[in-house]
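Dear Dr. H.,

I hope your travels went smoothly. While you were away I took the liberty of generating a structure for the chain from your last submission, since the lab meeting agenda had it listed for discussion. I wanted you to have the full record in hand beforehand rather than looking at slides cold. The sequence, exactly as received, is reproduced here:
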Amino acid sequence: MHLPDGFLSPPVFASGWVLALGSLSYCLKKTREILKDKMIPLMGVMAAFIFAAQMLNFPVLGGTSGHLLGGVLAAVALGPFAGFIVISLVLAVQCLVFQDGGITALGANIVNMGLAGTIVGYYIYAALKKSVFRNNALAAVFLSAWVSVILASGLCALELAFSQASPLNIVLPAMLFVHVFIGLGEAIITGMVVMFIIKVRPDLIYAKPAG
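The corresponding predicted structure, in token form, is as follows:
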């Protein structure tokens, strides 16, 4: 999922940077508007937890492995905008310090895992919780976490196809197939963590401001 340098064409990775920086600017503005005393330390704790959890891979298929994306988890605890900031920070540290993902591709990685995997994933969670699952937060978390991985991997495949790194009819099915199973791991881990938070500190779960 972490795209390295050399796979995306200049127009694609430049578009990723523009969209990532624009989204980050908007999320910083929205987060400042709703900032609470407990949010800053919680953002730090969540960033550290997701960073550490992403270091632990779980086997999937044929020698491949997956790891926690953490977008829906961050958004459920912090809200979609602060969650985006946390995921962007984690991706930036992974890229700049551990060379996990390329510098030119960092914008695209933030779009894939921050914009699609976190913000869109959160609104899928909110919609499912309100309608399909009738306030069953855990079921909504499980499904939205799985969908967020599929969305992020599909967007990654489209970027590779637009960059002519691989034909769409090859890269899209390949990415979606393996991430269907990686998404299950994401859903299980996210569900377990959210269930623990709800049981121990339910006040830490993000509540959308009224109005």
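Two observations you may find useful: The radius of gyration is 16 Å. The mean pLDDT is 89.

With kind regards,
E. W.
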